[in-house]
Specification:
Layout (H helix, E strand, L loop, with lengths): L8 H18 L4 H10 L15 H15 L4 H13 L11 H12 L3 H14 L23 H12 L6 H24 L12
Helix pairs in contact: 1-2, 1-5, 2-4, 2-5, 3-4, 4-5, 5-8, 6-8
Length: 204
């Protein structure tokens, strides 16, 4: 597995923690499937800027089967875990067909939000050598967003709307709190670079 600070063991621990919170809140989910999915969903980690990124979750699901078998998972559990792993990915676009898949997907997406999400954003930006923001137009008021070049643009392109795609009520509630933390950060960020945060970047 390719290691980076946004997809390391600590990320897996956080996904498992969020899976437990969501599962408890929804009173649903198979703990064994969620545990395995949490720790194996990034077994094959392809860089975000790779043209093969969308295949990472399917490759991880395939690679997970051998580990699950050795851990004593039966065939139905293996298939359930593989589907949850396949469907967790934003870029893969695979529709979750089980509550376990929905929970794992929500938990993984939640890790891109809030205080940890802020830290991950800039960690990935540094690794990919992206500029923090456009110096003349930080919030793309008069230009097209370009999150391949500017880290802050990625917030508007994906992160600030990510919570809208969360499937479980518990995940949605957690996501709303975390998005507001990010908006508060952006307000301070805007002030420190001498501008105001546009209303379009705020979440109702």
């Amino acid at each position: 597995m390719v290691q980076d600070s946004a997809h390391d063991l600590a990320h897996l621990d956080r996904v498992w923690l969020s899976c437990q919170h969501i599962s408890q809140g929804e009173r649903a989910g198979n703990p064994r499937v969620l545990l395995a999915g949490s720790y194996l969903h990034d077994l094959i980690n392809i860089p975000k800027n790779s043209e093969n990124r969308a295949h990472a979750s399917s490759l991880s699901a395939e690679a997970a089967a051998l580990h699950l078998d050795s851990l004593g998972y039966d065939e139905s559990e293996i298939q359930a875990t593989q589907h949850a792993i396949e469907a967790h990915s934003f870029s893969a676009g695979i529709l979750p067909r089980s509550i376990d898949a929905l929970i794992l997907r929500d938990a993984d997406r939640l890790d891109a939000l809030g205080a940890v999400g802020i830290a991950r954003t800039f960690s990935v930006a540094g690794a990919m050598r992206r500029t923090l923001y456009h110096p003349e137009d930080p919030f793309a008021c008069s230009r097209d967003l370009d999150d391949y070049k500017y880290s802050i643009d990625h917030w508007k392109v994906k992160l600030l709307v990510l919570a809208q795609g969360l499937a479980t009520p518990t995940g949605q509630a957690i996501g709303q709190v975390r998005v507001q933390r990010m908006v508060s950060f952006l307000e301070g960020f805007a002030e420190e670079i001498g501008c105001e945060l546009p209303d379009a970047w705020r979440q109702d």
